[in-house]
Amino acid sequence: MKYRQLGNSQLTVSEIAFGSWLTFSDGPQKANAIACVHRALDRGITLIDTANVYGRGAAELVLGEALAGISRDSYILATKLYFPMSSTDKGLSRAQIFKQLDASLARLQVNHVDLYQCHRYDNDTPLEETMLALSEVVRSGKVRYIGFSEWPIDRVEAALAIPKVERFVSSQPQYSLLHRSPERALISLSTRSGISQIVWSPLAQGVLSGKYLPGGDVPRDSRAANDAINGFLNPAWLRPKVLEAVQALRPLAAQSGLTLAQFALAWVLRQSNVASAITGASRPEQVDENAAASGHAVAPELFENAERIMGGVASEM
Asked: C or N: which end of the chain has fewer Cβ atoms within 10 Å?
């Protein structure tokens, strides 16, 4: 496992992160979920990402149990807030930041989180209120650094312009061979501002793993077959032309000595502003494959070929 500095922070994070949003929200899979966390730590993954809304607190509860007894300085813990936890608890107001942070800390069984992220932008709360409250929780010692996910560029710029508040060190965008919008403005702004990307959905909800075959049935154990979570899957990604293009990446991955999923992760990590790519796992063996994507020097022409292949279908979506 290789490691990268997270923005202008003093945090060093693993190139592959472990995300808890899918596996941990499923109660019957609790033991397996805990096994996946332990395997991730064994494989050198240090960045663990979750959010209060995942399973309405269930993910944080299980993660707290999984990390109990493990040295607190051996992993980087990141969580988020914004989405509704009840009919009245949502957003990024000062009151919600304090309330949701304390609830997350209790569920996670820790006295601080390394990274506290705003899951989306809150149009109903003044930006200054949000940034001042985030600064307060950093200065209280309950949070080490702050980040954002999927904020409009102008709102990021506005936050960076507010004086005497803590600065963001991370951004969590969707980024993959099938979703390259962060390249338009976010990455350049982040590079100038001491902000690194922690990428979600680097495998395009599993599509870039090659598990979905053109003309084939959707695997029963896949995200696309699970009505509870497939709302995040872009239906256009399951079109035959897209799936055929994904399969056309296999020879490129083979030339790199990587699986298709590892090749897609390595493509994301080719971008120096990316600190880490978040991956999930439903079994420990998947953790092994994902972790092994770190640290590969893939020939640039192979990535260029992949971009041409995927660019041809992405332009039609």
From this structure: C
